[in-house]
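Revision sheet: structure tokens.
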Amino acid sequence: MWSMVSLLVTAPAETALLDVDTSVINYDKLQKLYENRPLQEEIQAIEKASAKVTKDEGALDKPEQFLFELSKIPHFSERMHCIIFQPGFTENLTIIDSKLNNLKLTCQTLLSEKGVQSVMSLILAVGNHMNGGSRVRGQADGFNIEILPNLRDVKSQDNSTSLLYYVVHSYRSLYVPSGEAENAKFPLPEPADVGQAALVNFDDVLSEMKKIDRDISDCSKQAAKVIQGSEDNQQPFKDIMDKFLARANKSLKEVRESFAECQTQFDQVCMYYSWKPKSGKEPTPKTFFSQWVAFTSEFKDVWKKEQQRVIKEKVIEAKLRIQQKRALVQKPPTQKAKPEGLKARLMKKRKS
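Predicted:
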């Protein structure tokens, strides 16, 4: 450990800390250095030992010498805190923003994508047809999305196919042009996106944003200590940190706005599908999207099989066309016998 970190206590490394220049020292080494920073009691003890060191007694041991040199950097601990906070902040905020954007896009797809509306219409139409003998169930205007994961379990009389397969096949027959069958756009949200949306917990996201806000505030206080206590070494640290903190607060504000939009979009999609959990509690992404996870995944499995079937049929058709062309080329053309030809004269002789 000491052989690695001792390399950091050099003039360039000290300059990097003072100038917030991470091109000299990467964040991993900075993190280890910060974790092994000397405590105040250790610094005081080393300073006393250093004062007693004489030429006869020899220099400090390498670990003590390392800590002693480290303590000479003005506001080392606060500077290090501000530097290593930045990549962690960016990463954490990016993760939250990615979660929210995925949930918003998934909600928008379920609300406005024509493919989704067509699939839902087909399911309703098939359901009404199957319940045609019932005046109530056979004339429904909608259905509970809780039935979506069960479509695969509704089998035909001979058990050879399922209602899910029928819906997929009907959608492709009605809404996918024949020339685009093998490359048709998947009409539902991607199963992976739905699965990620189901993992979002609004309370957890809110707690994470509050923690990031506290961390920004703490970083701002640490930066203020450096600036106020380092008249000779304020720049470029002050300008760099001022810019970073301004960007950080702006980014957090944008994520908060995205969070509010996300909640609004989620409320709209729950209202659109008339979704209310049986528990009577408020809808959550987990309870709502869990109804779609299995359905979209199974729908896509059947969708891919249908695409493979279409591709296979086209390959067979292409092979048949090639075989037919080859047969025409290989078969010699037939010619009618000439009335005065050799064959005709022979036939006349035989008859006579």
